[in-house]
Amino acid sequence: MHIKLLKQKLSSKVLDELKVEDASGSTRKATFKVVDYIESKEAKKIVKEIKEKNPPHSQKTNGVNHSNGILTKTKEDAVKKEHESKEKKTHKKEHEKKSENKEIGKLKKKIEELIKQNKKILEDIKKAKLDKITQSYAKMRPKNAASILSNMKPKDALSILQKLQPKI
Asked: What is the rounded distance in angstroms from the CA atom of residue 60 to the CA atom of residue 79?
């Protein structure tokens, strides 16, 4: 295998041995994986260019550690801006929620007022109905009124009788 690589002018480093297992007889079977690689001359050239563009230093500038050029001021600013943006969004949502809760409170009060008004209207209707019925019974002969009242629910009959004015 190594001879074939040498004929193609490749280094043995391009192969990564995955596993070796026994084959028939005294032979062994090896499985290799071809690894992506860059020739050493090319690799040295790339490393040199990187070092020229980013010289290593570990001095602090504006309170930011630039060791090996990993963390820069612009990254820190981007993180701060993202954090501020998220805070603003959160604050805005909280404000919207408070406004919605206030609106819900106002609507609840309005509904409660409408319910009170409806109950009062219903009371007035029941009272007016009872007054009309009482007037009808007041015009009837007592014998006819008594026969009808005896067939009613006691509660309804009592309400009518309480409203009737005694005849003198």
From this structure: 19
